[in-house]
Amino acid sequence: MTDLVRTTVANGVYQIEMNRPDKKNALTAEMYSAMADGLVEAEANPAVRVILIYGSQGNFTAGNDLSDFLRNPPADKNSPVFRFINGFANLQKPFVAAVEGIAVGVGTTMLLHCDLVYAGSGARFCLPFANLGLTPEAGSSLLLAQRIGHVRAAEMLMLGEQFNAEFALYSGLVNAVIPDGQVVEHALSRCEKLAMQPAASIRITKDLMVRNQRPLVREIMARESLIFGQQLGSPEAKEAFSAFLEKRRPDFSKIT
Q1: Measured in whole angstroms, how far is the alpha carbon of residue 166 from the centre of its chain?
Q2: How high is the pLDDT of residue 47?
């Protein structure tokens, strides 16, 4: 494991901490690889009953570190980012998130695969894929619309605007809004309560809830990944990334 991702196991809970606070826990290929390995390890460890993910020092994650992402673009399903994302669809154990601060891109889409999500009162969510000339990932083109309805999902995915914790609660993306600074502690207490439940019953309950949809989710995720990779080479994405690196506003007006 890299120091940028910390993992611990205690009281039946496998904790994954994104630990790059100076960059608001922006994710690199190395971090994705470590977290993908962590999910596999957690699933295989019989001492683990629940998986908890959170970010260090008041932020969940700023999403992809774009500089690293451009140096290490995902090439296929074995790329670290897709290994991590595809891991969501294979989890048998409960997956819980504690979200403080910002949750950008995959920081929001992964929540659609969580069984429980707790957000801080100051949490801010964003799905900026279209803003970057890209497309939805992690099954969000299916799961978000199912969760909150087409028109709200379209607004989030097409305009890429931030929304707050209260709206996330209203939309059904989170279970509860907790005072900032108490979110991880609260989520951990819920995880520990889950870990004390009969393990087989919890796994079976989750399986019954997701079994019928899992094949479709995997199909959608594979399609999204293919299109996402193709879109990385598009004129829109090139303009968006150039604008980001040059610290200017992108101009899509001449791109059809």
Answers
A1: 19
A2: 96
Q: Which residues does 83 contact at the CB level (< 8 Å), separation at least 6?
A: 32, 33, 36, 77
Half-sphere exposure of 109 (CA within 13 A, CB side): 28
Strand bridging mode 102-104 / 124-126 = parallel
Alpha helices in the chain (DSSP H): 29-44, 66-71, 80-88, 106-109, 140-148, 150-159, 165-171, 183-195, 199-210, 214-231, 235-246
Residue 189, number of CB atoms within 10 A of its CB: 11
Q: Which domains does the chain have, with CATH numbers?
A: 1-180+199-256 (3.90.226.10)
**pLDDT by residue (tens digit) across 20-32?**
999 999 999 999 9
pTM metric for this prediction: 0.94
| Distances, alpha carbon 178 to alpha carbons 103, 148, 243, in Å | 15, 21, 36
- Burial of 211 by CB count in 10 Å (0-12 exposed, 13-18 middle, 19+ buried)? exposed
CB atoms within 10 A of CB 144: 25
Cβ atoms 53, 96 nearer than 8 A: yes
Residue ranges in the chain whose pLDDT is less than 50: none
Tokens representing residue 143 in the block = 């799961």
- Counted residue by residue, the chain has a size of 256
